[in-house]
Description:
single chain; Rossmann fold; Phosphatase 2c, domain 1; 12 helices
Amino acid sequence: xxxxxxxxxxxxxxxxxxxSRAQRMLVTAGLRSWGFTVHQAASGAxxxxxxxxxxxxxxxxxxxxxxxxxxxxxxxxxxxxxxRYVYFxxxxxxxxxxxxxxxxxxxxxxxxxxxxDSGELRARIKAGERVLAMERMLxxxxxxxxxxxxxxxxxxxxLDRDLVDARKLQQSLIRERHHRYPEGAISLIxxxxxxxxxxxxxxxxxxxxxxxxxxxxxxxxGVTSALMTARLSGLLSGSSSDQNIAIARGPDGQTGRPPxxxxxxxxRVMLSEIQTDRYVTLAYAExxxxxxxxxxxxxxxxxxxxxxxxxSSKLLGEGGLPVGLFDGAEYTEFQTCLKPGERLLLVSDxxxxxxxxxxxxxxxxxxxxxxxxxxxLRGNSLLDALMWELARWHASEEFPDDISCALFEYDGPxxx
Length: 416
């Protein structure tokens, strides 16, 4: 019987290796809050030097780094002669079998998708603690390791069955995937990278002429992000000011709140009521279907795209702070006016950051090229074709991140 105290102490020193200082600081903050002593390195060479001076228990290393890659760093670490085992987790957007096989071959123990989900990271570290405790206490006892992994597999199988049902429930949050108005149409698509995800898109009625139109993305993946998605969807559902933070009641009746105020309210709710270490990127637009006028806010979400009748397009917004990071964060509203035949598209970063087999991200320019090519299509046919083009770019239908799209196509004011 393994002493639980020994398991908890199996990992004390953690080394975070990433050429991005921002990524290192983000991961380090979470690790320190869990009580680990955290060391940082900006390159594989610097990490190897630290490992020679400090007894590191766990390494979280980025796969793609200039100079020495995470794979090369792992190979050199395993070649060092030591009786002390270091648990090695690769942080990567790679998901193909060949890449996973390469990582396992050089000695990686686990993989974690970027951006790092704190809940999943904690679970992977717990697994690492168990492995290291058993390795140090029962060196060579393969039977115990096999028994442990069998139990984990049974647990994953059980979770997998539950997640299948959770996926169905999350998809049901989108009440309509295509809605036709006299002035135009809204089309939506939601494609989690796993069973459930942190993306959501939708729309709601404010007045007979005004429609709220949104896309948001909770950081991370999995069940925790999906629960957050359901909670935040509730803030943008319903058709009254008592139910929906984007609707206000004034002296002349119901109207829409300014989009910047909507983002600020969601930020306040996340920090005061939900109180989580996750954050959310948001793009929210208020559509005036009678005039084509649109007022919007962008809070860390990819730029909204307006596509013109000739197939060309334009990016809107200046970025903005994500929701749920800073108390009192301020957001800026911007506006545009759609003409008949033009459309507004909101996408998650699963689209713009989707990598090709060489690791190059699609980016906004790549998205605009795809939209130009697909400009004759409309509605869900356009979104389905966009997914197909994205799979062709990625060389796989298994995407590393959740993907969501919300499309509004403006046909012009209704006939009087």
